[in-house]
Fold each of these.
Amino acid sequence: MSVISLRDVTKRYGETTAVDGLDLTVEEGEAYGFLGPNGAGKSTTINVLLGFAKATDGSAEVFGHDAWSDATAVRERTGILPEGYDLYGRLTAREHIELANDLQGADDDPDAVLERVGLDPEDRDRRVGGFSTGMTQRTALGMALVGEPDLLVLDEPSSGLDPNGMAELREIVGEELDRGATVFFSSHILDQVEGVCDRVGILRDGELIAEDTVDGLRTSMGAESRIELRVDDLQPVEFDDIAGVTGHTVAESTVRVSVTDPGAKADVIRRVEDAGMEASDVKIRDASLEDLFAAYTEREGAEGKRPAMEGRA
Amino acid sequence: MKALTVARKELRDGRRSPLPWALAALVAVYVVPLTIRFPEQVVSTVDLERQTTIMLAAAERPVVFASILIGALSVVGERESGSLRVLLGSSATRRDVVAGKLLGRGALLIGVLLVGLTPIVASVYVRVGAISLPDALLGTVLNLLLGLAYFGVAAEISTVVNTRLRALALSLGAYLLFSEFWAQAVVVPVYRLVHGSPPPGIALEFALIPTIDLPRVLQRVSPNNAHIAANYFNGVVDWFAVAMLVFWAAVPVGVGYLRFRRQEVTA
């Protein structure tokens, strides 16, 4: 069942088209990474999804409800970490969670929620006006998690979070997915959705220019992963017959193989072992989404037109 | 129920802000010296009821100022900061949010005015040596109604504009229109439209003559004039004037909500 369904959604502000004919579907239980540089139209799309803004054309439905005219029904089942928000500086973190409880009709334990988002006990009764950006973000994330929402919309959730905080955020997203929630995760920092999201869409200038799994995007872009094996006893070995292998080098005690198909990595490692070599260390460097995004937009620029949507679902 | 949640949040947040306390102090500090130094000829020539009424009516300007500040920042303050997106991101409806904010801020304003007016009542007692409690009560209630009328106007503006500065400027503009230019900008043109000639000067003396005719009715549409009229008809409540104060407290807010309901809330 589709949780989010956007059909040909266009949003214009005067002469400016922020989102142009966007089709997008997110299925129940899925983690969808919504990627794109700042100004691509991500927040506008989220504003349309949450009933903060009305689509100029097209239809936007969440849980089968019209996102604008039936926004309250949507938000009853949605936890939101919006972009460009602010909290109430004179209220404490605990009072914010209590406020979210009352507004969502939930009865979550504020301490448990704040513990989960990593806010220290001594900070929970402090007014949020004195919080750092990261602590504010943790409090807002806690508010979004209240009431076990069926859909979690996170708009640039990593703002202000240090690497530890980012790792905790990934863990929380994983837990939410495990209990069956759907996650819509927007970011301009592409690596952040990697490992979290089942599927990603790349938005640019208001248009979805690619949509696929992370691996699918890599394959469609021909982006290479590199496998580096340190072996004890170097033996002759060939990889050319493995589909997806683009080349290899052997130097001293290290075998380096480049592949474009993620599925080829296991075959490469097996081939090394079959050749009688014992790998003492294996390193795999996948092309990051940053690489992919750059490759995608560069290719678009080079061709002067939208790229083929090989990987698009 | 969610409106009450928003109202409780508003009250809790407001109580911790220095602004309401500063406004209560402003009301008292502005009026108490006026009361203490009230001209002897006025004090000695009118009865106790009148003295009480006149001295409490002197609070009009700071009451309006405090009400505008609290009303004008109500919704646009949250819109500008971004906290409105957190409130509207919950399952609270826009009606819950507007009703809750107005309930909370309205209650805060009543608290501010009561705290500010109490020293004024005390100062009247000190100045005159006695006080008419019914008139002190009536004067206080009319000050509260005046405050709520301006709160309603300012809150309506606050729901439809995008910046605090614009909300404050428009609210103060409304005050200037009602207090300084109402007769020339509204009463005279409407009278001329109906009768084909400007009203005689005496017709603008709305408060002193309890006659119901067009200029006097139009004059009392202004909340400032309604406040004065309601105070001046000593012993007889001018229900039309009171109704106009209630009108300004309620109707603009309703209009503001209808516009806010269809507004986009973007960062």
Amino acid sequence: MTQNTGTGARPGVGPAGSEPASATPATPPPFDRPNAAVAAAQADAAPVKPPPPRLTWMGITHQWGTRVKPGKHGLRLGDLNVGIYGEVPAVWNDQTRNPRGAVARRGIPPVGYSIRDKADLWADCAADLYEEAIQRRWAPATDVPWATLASLPDDLEAAICQVATELSQYANVDVEAVTHWQHQMAYGYHEVKQFLATVSFDAARHLEAFRKRALANGGGLGLEGPGEVNRMILESRGGWTETVLYLFVLRGLFTQTMLRYLERYATCDAERAIYGNCLEDKARHLTYGVDHLWYSINHQPDQKLITQQLCIIGERVLVRELKDPVLREALSIVFAGGVARAASEGAAVYRKMMRDFVRRYLDVMKWLGVERTAMFPDELAQYLRND
Amino acid sequence: MGEAGAASQQGELDLGWMKRRGEWGVRAEPSKQGLTLADIQIGSYGDPVAVSDNQTGRPRGAAARATSMRIGGYSVTRKSEIWLENASFLYEEALQRQWSSATDVPWHTIRPLPDDIEQAQCQLATFLTEVEFVAGDVPARWISQTTPDYFEPRQCLLAQVMDESRHMDVFRKRALANGGGLMLTSGGTAGVVGSIDLSRDFTEMSSRLHISGEGAVLTIFRMGELMAYNEAEKAMYRLCSQDEARHVAFGVMHMRYMSEAAPERREEIQCYLDEAERQILAGSQNPAGTQTDASEALAILLGGGKDKYDEGLKKLIAIRKRQVTEYVKRVRTTGFGDRFDNGRSQLPALMNQAAA
């Protein structure tokens, strides 16, 4: 009655390299300490004449005998990539929710995934980043020492609130961009989908944390951002890779650099905790972004040139957004500790921040092998000249 | 002078933005659970409008720019379509109760099992991995379509996507951790008419996903001790049931809000419940559904082996009845309990299927 498919492995017999199933022990009891719900369920059981089981599923597997052992960091997602379960194909044509390595049922209507090529989403680090994100979880409600917030001069409070407003809006774009694509990704690449679940959850926390900061110290939300880069990210429908470039690398690096400076100029431990925790999260997002771009560029013949073209477009959009004075002025006030020295000392720190951002951006592009001297906007290049 | 120099000279700051802002002078105070989302629902930042015209992604309560482009493309713009009263609480609880399948499940307690039991466990794990895919995919799609003016429910859904991701991996881990492997998928998660995937209305989706679908799975998880053979499996089901209970609560509280805020939609909602009830026992997305591979696997686990299948089936039938009882309680809580009193619900007749 039972049969095997696929590799021909059969239950109880492990494939080469895996531990064989050990001798069958005595059947353990199905439960030892039934709780109240269990007891109630048993009490409800009425005598019936059960139909005979079909059990046609028994023995249907592509690979049996897999025994992954937990390591010193527990049993991690990446540890599961053994035997056929670790074979990640270049194209995943299965349009159902068949878990990778399971036996697919034939004739199932498709769900309709648009991202089915590994090169369009993969990053080797996704599984590790997923586990790291879970281990480094934090809660703005309880992991930020809100009691350390102290009243600030109105100009400084207004500037911090303006920055928090824009960062909260950035996080909203993170949420919307990632969740727009997430469900379109095929399950053959579940590690990436799972990592992206942590990214959108991180973004939810960022949205929340910055909103809380704006509303916790006698201020309030400021003016919405100009939205040029937001638009570019949300309208980057050419593929997930394009979104990754704009969301995690261009905007991501800009945000990360800003957070690093904000952490340095924080007015209290609560702010330091917010910026510090967000920075850790952002570092994971950037790692995935760069790793994915690297994979994409190295597995698709035209991707390097496409990335270069997208960079040229994206940099110009960023420059347009930066012409809006609001964020720049707010940051200058924060860095200077008030309006009085914002245009001098604050602006100087802002320029350093921009210099760091441009440098890091160009370093990443260089590492990826994407040429970024031609048509690089002078508005960004000048930050390096002023060095 | 370039862009960088614009703010570099004294007196060149514009500062006009300082006068264009949301309500000023807000000082939210942390409560005993810290500074929660509920704590910042104050003043004009509290209750959102019934119909949102925010298509720019503006944070609720921030000042609008006249020049902002309408980039949101949101389709969920009415509060009644997605709101619930306790979203802030559910979200904060989700944050506090995050867990790790790598380190919070005592994997070392897993011991080799008889082959029929290991196969049943792996078949069930394969099924659960597959259905958790649905519960992760679908809420994600709705998040991106919902205006940020209703960010509290969106935060809950984001937590759900994270939870489901963990459920996927914990069941995959179980299947690959004890000498077994993944087995046969159910195919019951395909995108066909009336499925969770294809719902074009949030409440329709939520009624299927949260109330009937996850409700049925929650009952199974709560019975985890019955089908667990070691502490790792017990922990797995217990932790998943905590998460699942929040998701079900989301659906129940949303439907209750919808019922009160948009009574004109009650008849339409009854139709979704009609559909859900037809699927609750016969549908292939319920692991305890009649005559499915997962339910046979469950019967083996509940009985203690293939040779004790009949004994296991009796327990399974009790679980199905419990699923129905809990479903009825939930629907009564939403305010749609009249369907069980006026003869609209076919569940009493469907209860006979429980023994099939």
